[in-house]
Amino acid sequence: MDFDLPEEARALQQMCRDFTEREIRPYAAQWSETEHVPTGTYRKMGELGLMGMLVAERYGGSDAGFVTYVAAMEEIGRGDQSLASGWNAHSTIASLPLATFGTEEQKRRWLAPLASGTHLGAFGLTEPTAGSDARGIRTRATRADGGWLINGTKMFITNAGTDMSLGVTLLAVTGDGADGKRFGTFFVPDATAGYEKGRRLRKLGWHACDTRELVFTDCWVPDDHLIGDDGNGLKQFMQVLDPGRISVAALALSLASAALEMAVRHAGEREQFGRKVGDFQAVGHKLADMATEVEAARALVYRAAWLADSGRPYAQAAAMAKLYASEAANRCARDAVQIHGGYGYIRESEISRFYADAKILEIGEGTNEVQRNVIARTLGRQAAGRT
């Protein structure tokens, strides 16, 4: 069993490490403090081929695969979680519906600019009254004049309001039948009449990431803006959610790793009672636990990525990776702040920013309660298959 990254993945990871040290880490604190979305940095990432890593080359992507993408996320996320979270949303749930279910014309029209990095993508699922309960969405798309009339509100949507946003891919109810609601997936370009963006939301963390409410009032789009088949929208969304969970797990891994790195550095520099803080057993044990958690999370995340690249079932592995890595990230961030002491509670400290960013990892891309439900259901099916 070989745990080494492939040579091309190691090379790209090193490139991302160098890029992070040069273009992200020096500016991340200022971005957070001023709530600036660094779209210029996204464009530079596009020039490096990082904005379409999961998209086929013929549409402007690099088709690098999940293992290489996770390796890249480890480095980008260590520099700034806000920027990495926007990249995560763009690369997975915003791009993959088009990549997986879009027509050739849709891919060339919308996927290509997303994959090349000239534009950012957004995905609209969550609503004021529906989050984990995806079937509970109320946004509706009704057939009208050779197209669809969309009405509803989306909430907590990432990347929709930047100066490089292309539009939003959204899930809407398209009808009601004997078996319940039908759903469709639609692409709504920026500047479409009836599509309005609410104010940018102020969050506990991810201050440099664009998050806002979107409102659709008699928003008409032509038939060719329907992605995939009418009636399969929810199924399509669930299919691209698993890659999104791998991506969020990788984001969490990067945070846990960064927190450990900061804690080790501080413990080796700070002195109390005439000794380095790291020489005290209580601190050393915290560092040991953090390091173990990081390695356990890394194993789960890369296993899920490897299964996805191998074409094998990976829904359970993705849920496990997201569940464990996000909770490990929160524990590591908490312990890193404790090791920093008072310095860790000052907003100018790097660890305070990562601590504020950690909590959302247990909520986004399906709460951890939902991940436990997913894992439990797959265990039940596996047990039934053995009988």
UniProtKB/TrEMBL annotation:
Residues 7-117 form the Acyl-CoA dehydrogenase/oxidase N-terminal domain. Pfam families: Acyl-CoA_dh_1 (PF00441), Acyl-CoA_dh_M (PF02770), Acyl-CoA_dh_N (PF02771). Keywords: FAD, Flavoprotein, Oxidoreductase. It comes from the Bacteria. Signal peptide: none annotated. Residues 231-379 form the Acyl-CoA dehydrogenase/oxidase C-terminal domain. InterPro entries: Acyl-CoA_DH_CS, Acyl-CoA_Oxase/DH_mid-dom, Acyl-CoA_Oxase/DH_mid-dom_sf, AcylCo_DH-like_C, AcylCo_DH/oxidase_C, AcylCoA_DH/ox_N, AcylCoA_DH/ox_N_sf, AcylCoA_DH/oxidase_NM_dom_sf. Transmembrane segments: none annotated. SUPFAM superfamilies: Acyl-CoA dehydrogenase C-terminal domain-like (SSF47203), Acyl-CoA dehydrogenase NM domain-like (SSF56645). Belongs to the acyl-CoA dehydrogenase family. The keyword Glycoprotein does not apply. Its cofactor is FAD. Residues 122-219 form the Acyl-CoA oxidase/dehydrogenase middle domain. This is Alkylation response protein AidB-like acyl-CoA dehydrogenase. It comes from Pseudonocardia parietis.
